[in-house]
Design goal:
With 165 residues, the chain is α/β, with parallel strands linked by helices. The protein contains six helices and five strands, in the order βαβαβαβαβαα. Helix 1 (17-30) runs parallel beside helix 5 (120-135), helix 2 (45-55) crosses helix 3 and helix 5 (120-135) packs across helix 6. Bound molecules: 5-O-phosphono-beta-D-ribofuranose.
């Protein structure tokens, strides 16, 4: 079915959505069906594990886990699926996301998650990385990715800086 989600964007709290909506917007831009959900490694552990365990059978190709603070969500998802799991550290209230980054990136050998930058750049790049993975077996998507990159390059090259008074 065309609208079956290929990607699950999972975040630990709805307070992560202002950042993770940038990830969802990127999937929308590329026409990739996704679903976004709030599930927590700590507050809803059974539901998070069940979601990861069932994702592949539902036709999903990639999971993205976003969390802040003691950011165990992506690792917990990865523990229950063989799908690629990407992690986006949320900018936490007290430590600005450095805690989230370190929690996510220090996975034990054997259960990988690919961790991106803290915050919005990480949210967008997790989506673009997913696009690149899916584009390996989808020529139309590969063309869209090339067009996106070319347009981004043109935009940067067209920038001008103000004169000094
Ligand atoms: C994490 O705790 C969430 O991913 C969020 O980044 C952080 C704070 O959650 P709330 O207290 O805002 O629900 O689990």
């Amino acid at each position: 079915m065309a609208n079956t989600p290929l990607v699950g964007i999972v975040m630990g709290s709805d307070s992560d959505w202002p950042v993770m909506s940038a990830c969802a917007k990127t999937f929308k831009q590329f026409g990739i069906p996704y679903e976004a959900k709030v599930l927590s490694a700590h507050r809803t552990p059974d539901a998070a594990l069940d979601y990861a365990a069932g994702a592949q059978a539902r036709g999903m190709k990639v999971l993205i886990g976003a969390a802040g603070g003691a950011a165990h969500l992506a690792g917990v998802l990865a523990a229950k699926t063989e799908l690629p799991v990407l992690a986006v550290p949320m900018p936490s209230k007290h430590l600005q996301g450095l805690d989230s980054l370190l929690a996510m990136v220090q996975m034990p050998g054997g259960i990988p998650v690919a961790t991106f930058a803290i915050g919005e750049a990480g949210a967008v790049n997790a989506a673009l990385f997913t696009v690149a993975m899916l584009a390996l077996s989808d020529a139309d998507l590969a063309k869209k990715l090339s067009e996106f990159r070319a347009s981004q390059t043109a935009k940067v090259l067209s920038k001008t800086l103000p004169d000094i008074e």
